[in-house]
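User: what does the whole thing look like in 3D?
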Amino acid sequence: MHISNSDVLLMAHAAAGVTGGLAALWVFVEVLNVRPANMGRVQAAALLSAVCMAAAWISGGYWYVHFYPAERALILKGPWPFAHTLFMETKEHLFFITAILAFLLPLTTREELSANPAARKLVLSTAALIVITGLALEGAGAIIDHGVKVALLQNAFTRAQQ
Amino acid sequence: MNSTIPSEAPKLTAATSGFVLAASITVLLNTALACVKDAYVPLKSFMRSLAGHDWTTQGLIDLLLFVGLGFIFMRTGVAEKINSNRLIGGLIAAVAIAGLGLALWYAVF
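Assistant: Here's the predicted 3D structure for the full assembly of 271 residues, as structure tokens:
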């Protein structure tokens, strides 16, 4: 078995991203029934979402800059070039939006949510946007991964026929 | 006659509203920058020369914009004057336009 640094970084990126999205979902659910007693959990989950998105940014960014070019070349020669030209290009820039929202979330949870309907609405909206854009990022990640897979399968199939 | 004076609905603090407005502007500028650097190669090359990769530079610009604008809006109280519902609607609209704009840009160009 061989697990390379590239594999570790990529898995760390995906795991941190999913955890950040789940933490935002946790914030959303807590805020639906917010009261002074659960404000601690709301703030902790919001902070967890921000920290996880920062971790996803650093791990994914390092992987993207140092390891992705080889996979990009493979995808572009394979049967699913749009996995890079559409999905990766969109994902790498959409990620910034999710990350900014995740950094905003802990700031919004400093408001007195149980007494302020506007603040509650803001936190619910921000958390929902993190979850929705996060799911789009995860889906795009799966398509990019499949773009590499079908390119490798095509190579293997061509070699087997020779 | 009802003599009670209706109390004003609680608003967002200057810090929260400032950073919400900063986030809305940052996500829109992020999409604009992604499109412009793609269409204008010298900009992409310049951004690459700043941090080794245009994507890294763009991320740093986004962070600086969010934090910088957030503090400016917080200190000046500009965002606090905006109605909370408008601020929240603006954030949702900004994220929708920016996200769909990115997908559309890369789908078409």
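In plain terms: The helical segments of chain B are 14-39, 41-51, 54-76, 84-108. Chain B touches chain A through 36 residues (CB under 8 Å).
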